[in-house]
Structure formats: structure tokens, C-alpha cells
Amino acid sequence: MSLITDDPDDSPRHCATKRHHHHGAGCGRFSGTGRRRLLIAASSAATSIIALAIILWLTLRPSAPRFSLLAATAAVAGPNSTGIARLDTAFVAHNPNARATALYDRLQLRASYAGGQLAASAEPFEQTQGDVVLTALMSSSSSVAPAAAVDVGETAAGGRPTLLLRLRVEGHLRWKVASWVSGRRALAAECVAVVVLEQSQSRAVVVQGSQCATTLQ
């Protein structure tokens, strides 16, 4: 079949001549140079898409926040009791991400020791990069017998009894990058601290705070 064209340069005879001398440049759909340019353009586009995907993956996959116990003061249940009725706590939440805002909600703070538990809820809040202090006043959820609250063999200087206090921050965490917001993830931060009971003053002071172990699920 002959190639019919109005251009005399693209006539069948001319194409045959050009195929012989120039390997068909200008006759047919694409020349070799055109194919190479198309391949280079496609490769560049694929490379750009892959690079953009890597950047988005690194940006939208922030590092987990870190929690630590800043301070805590406890109120003893009674003059002859070693149980804690209230615990005033302050935690530091640290967001290490420069481009991701942490969104916290459904926060619950709990403290437990031998024979007793305390709990409180906290308001939702947003956190950009840096530190935020989270405070809560936890109240006792059960009555504690005087002897049950003291860990056997644990005393501070002067014979004052001590408690090993375990604190836990629970809630949900989302990340916000520009207008994009991630799905919720379960957040848990666990801390351990030592409490020295001041029975004469009906209060107790946390003498040893700790860095909390934070997990996301």
C-alpha cells in the first residue's frame, strides 16, 4: 500500500529514498530522536513522582511524641493513712516534628500503686513543635487500707514510707500537615516515680520523676 500525501517530499518514492539514506527520518509516526525524547520525558516524570512520594512519605510520617513527668504532689487520705487521695501532676509533652502538628484527644491520665488507683481526664489540645505542659488533678477511685499502700521494705531517709507510683497517659493522636489530617492512633505513655509520704503534713512529694515510655498503635 502506498502512502498518499499532499506533500511531494513524503511521497512513497521519496520515503523509500529517505529510508535508504536517512533510515526513515520524517516518514512514519516517530523518528528515533522522537522516541528517545519521549523516553527521557517519561523517565524524568517517573523520577519526579518517586521523589515526591518519598518526600511526602517522610513528611507525613512524623516521629512519635515524647512524654516526661515534670512534677507531682499528692494529698494523703488521712493522718494515719499511707493512701493517696489526690495527685496533682504535670507532664511535659514534646513534639519533635517541625512540619507536623500533634492533635490529642480522649486523654485519660491514670496513676496506680500498691492498693490504690487514681484517674483524671484532660481536654483535647494541639501541639506544634516544642514542649507543652499537661496538668491534671487525679482523684482516688477506691479506698485504700493504710498498710496496703506501702511497698514493703521501701523507706526514705528518716524512716518515711515511700510508694512506687506508676503513671499512664492514654488517648488518641492524629497528625496535621498543612490541611491534611491523619487517622487516629492509640497513644500510651507510661512513667514510674517514687513518692515520699509526709504523713505529718498529710501530703506526699514525688522525689524522683522519669522519662516516660511512649508507644503508638
Structural description of this entry:
Residues 15-24 have a biased composition (Basic residues). Residues 1-27 are annotated as: Disordered. This is Late embryogenesis abundant protein LEA-2 subgroup domain-containing protein. It is found in: Membrane. By secondary structure, the chain is α+β, with helices and mostly antiparallel strands. Helices cover 18% and strands 46% of the residues. It is built from 2 helices and 11 strands. Residues 142-153 have low confidence and may be disordered.
SSE arrangement:
Layout: H1 12-22, H2 32-59, E1 66-76, E2 84-95, E3 101-113, E4 116-122, E5 125-127, E6 130-140, E7 162-177, E8 180-181, E9 185-198, E10 203-208, E11 213-216
Antiparallel strand pairs: 1-2, 1-10, 2-6, 3-4, 3-5, 3-7, 4-6, 7-8, 7-9, 9-10, 9-11
How would you describe this structure in keywords?
Immunoglobulin-like, 2 helices, single chain, 217 residues, rod-shaped
Uncertain regions spanning at least 5 consecutive residues: 142-153
Total separate domains: 2
Radius of gyration: 35 Å
Q: Structural class, from secondary structure content?
A: alpha+beta
Quaternary structure of the protein: single chain
Beta strand %: over 45%
Q: Main β-sheet, in a few words? A: 8 strands, antiparallel, barrel
Order of helices and strands: HHEEEEEEEEEEE
Average the pLDDT over all residues and give the rounded result.
75
Strand order of the largest sheet: 1-2-6-4-3-7-9-10
How many β strands by DSSP?
11
In DSSP terms (H or I, runs of 4 or more residues), the helix count works out at: 2
CATH topology of the largest domain: Immunoglobulin-like
- CATH structural class of the largest domain: Mainly Beta
Helix content: 10-25%
CATH architecture of the largest domain: Sandwich
The geometry reads as: rod-shaped
Terminal CA distance: 68 Å
Biased composition (Basic residues): 15-24
Transmembrane segments: 38-60
Protein name: Late embryogenesis abundant protein LEA-2 subgroup domain-containing protein
Region (Disordered): 1-27
